[in-house]
Structure formats: C-alpha cells, structure tokens
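Onboarding guide, step 5: your first structure request.
Type a short instruction followed by the sequence, for example:

Predict the 3D structure of this protein.
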Amino acid sequence: MILSMTGFGRNFLANDFCYVKTEIKSVNSKYLDLRFRLPKLFNYLEIDLMNIFREKALRGKIDISVDVQFRKPVKIPKINHNMLNLYLDALREIQMESEVLDDIRIDHLIHYDDILEFNEDKETEEKVGAFIKDSVSQALQELNGMRQKEGENLYNDLKERIERLKESAKKIDNLKNSVFDYWLDKFKKRMEKLDIEAQEDRITQEAGFYAEKADITEEVVRVDSHLNQFMSTLEKEDFCGKKLDFISQELHREFNTIGSKSNSADVVNIVVSAKSEIDKIREQVQNIV
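The system replies with structure tokens like these:
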C-alpha cells in the first residue's frame, strides 16, 4: 500500500519520572529531511531517532517536536563552597580597590557556572530517554496511519486517471491505421487541384513513405507498457514515489512524440487531453513516499 508524504502524529506518555509530549508533522520532499526539537539534555538521542525514521519514513520533510516535563529533577544542583568563597573574596577585593559601594548580590554570582555543580541521576535520565523513544515511535505510528489513509485516496485517484489514459491510448491505436488513407487522400486531392495526372502506384508509394514517417505504433506500444508498469508498481510496491514519477515522465514523453508525429486532428486532441491527465498524475505522485 502506498503512503502519502503528508501527515501528522501526536503522542502523550506519562510515568513516575516525567510527562512526554511528541508531535510529528510531515510534508512533501524529494528526500528524507528530519528536523528535531528535543530538550537540550536529550540531544544525544537524535542519532537513534534518525535511524527509526530512516526505517519507517524514507521520504518527506518531517518536523519532530518533543516536550518533557519532569516530575522529579534529573540534575540535582549542589553548591561548590570552595569556588563560592573564592569568587566572594575576589568580588570584595574588587570593591575595596575600586571603591565600589554596591553590595554583592546573588545575580553577581550566578554567572559563574562552577559555583553550582549538578549531580546527574543517570539512571533516571536513561529511563526518560527510553521513554522519549517510545513516545516518538508511537507518534510515528500515528503519522504513518494518517499517511496510509491519504495514500489510499491517492491510489484511487491515480487508478482512475490511468484508466482514462488507457482509453486514450486505445482510441489512438484505433486511429493510427488511418494515417496511410490520410496521406493517400491528400496526394490525390493535390494532384487533382494541380490538374496533374499521376500513376496510382506512384501516389501509393508516396503516401506509404509519409505514413511510415508518421507511424506511431512503437509509441503506442510503449505507452501501453508504461501504463501497465505504473499500475503494477502502484499495487505491488511500497515506497514507490520516485519510480512512479519516472514512469510518469516517460508517459509524457511518449504522448508528446505521438502528438508531434501525427497529422490527425483527432489524435492531437486526444494527446492534449492525455498530457493534461499526466500532469495531474505527476502532481499526485510528488506526494507519494
């Protein structure tokens, strides 16, 4: 089943340590473009999370936002009294030498990072990290569920458009045999207009020559092959967006060649409609993973 690149997933998890809220938004992109917003303490998880998305997302511009609210602190602050006393002595000395009358305040001291030390609760941090991974995985599952539903809509739309292209190809195939008659009639009328008497076999030979140059049998066969390949890929392959885009380009090229080679107004009109249909297919294919 095909997946759309557009989707949204959200997850909330809570345990004894924290609350975790994860939101994932995905839009179209040629490649997999991941953008994480994680709490600073858990930036180290980004590589592991990227591997999860590479396995289950493959393509799309995906924004992942994770918010963590702790029930108990993971980092416990502790005063480094030795450093505090050293800074206080230095500030008092500055007061005396510069005759600054301001009192020493807390906000003068908090700029020095080594006054406060943090005893990290590694066990809790690891548990919260694993909890974040679970939340992201569940949000990704919801995202892919939405992408799958949108993919079903894309499948139905593309299937209808391919059926219309098959009808167009069938009409062109029926009209291609009239090319010789077109040139034969054209040469006969030209001879009559110029009042020139020409041998029948000579006119037939000339008509055959031009009909051969305008022959579109190969293009019609390739169009039929591309249409069958498109549907086979759509029905049997996962993550097929790039392949479908390539087949769509080939279809456009074949119909374009048919239009340029054919002298039939009916064929040209069918080609114009078919190319319009292919343009819509290519727009839809851009949204497939």
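Each response can be followed by summary notes, for example: Residues 151-285 form one domain.
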